[in-house]
Amino acid sequence: MTSPPPAPTLVLALGNPDRGDDGVGQAVLLDLAERGQLPANVEVLDGGLAGLETCLYLQGRRRALIIDAADMGLSPGEWRSIEVTQPMLAGELRPGVVHSAGLKEALQLAAALDGLPERVTLFGVQPETIDWGSGLSHCVALAVPAVGAAIQERILHDKDGCCDGEDPDYR
Questions:
Q1: Closest Cα partner for 73 from 106, 48, 98?
Q2: Average pLDDT, integer, range 49-63
């Protein structure tokens, strides 16, 4: 018996909700669930911590939208949507996700195994704190609906972003 192919589009949350703002990805997934308007060909997944196994979630996908806390030197709660490109994977992937080894290496491994989706978009949210403790900081919690709306818009209207690896609708 064979498994059905994965949905062509994956919305993947990474992070640990027990580490303060590192749980922003999971909060955005809850926001998306409350919106309830994603097409059937979209899979939403809580990927937990960004380890190398993340590359397995990407296999067979055409597109991946990844949400994670990212230290970008911005004010807490500010976020960016960045199209990940092959040259970015060869160099230093910015923004810097808060996991020590994980997302960049998982994307590089997926590319090496010819399993990287055609389009990968990282939605990075600047954390205020990633200390142990549950709950998002106020600034990051305020960003959750905007990130959820941007992801929903991207999926429903197939927005490709723009040049230079940055999306025109970043906040």
A1: 98
A2: 87
Alpha helix stretches (DSSP H) within 2-102: 24-35, 54-58, 86-90
Say yes or no to pLDDT of 141 above 90. yes
Could you read off the pLDDT of 96-137 as tens digits, one per residue?
554 445 788 888 888 888 889 999 999 999 999 988 987 999
What domains can be seen in the chain, in order of their start residue? 9-164 (3.40.50.1450)
Q: Tell me whether the omega of the peptide bond preceding residue 168 falls within 30 degrees of 0, making it cis.
A: no
CA 110 to chain centre: 15
Select from 92, 64, 91, 66 the least CA-distant residue to 79.
Answer: 66
CA distances from 67 to 3, 4, 58, 112 (A): 26, 25, 14, 22
Compute and round to an integer the Cα radius of gyration of the chain.
15
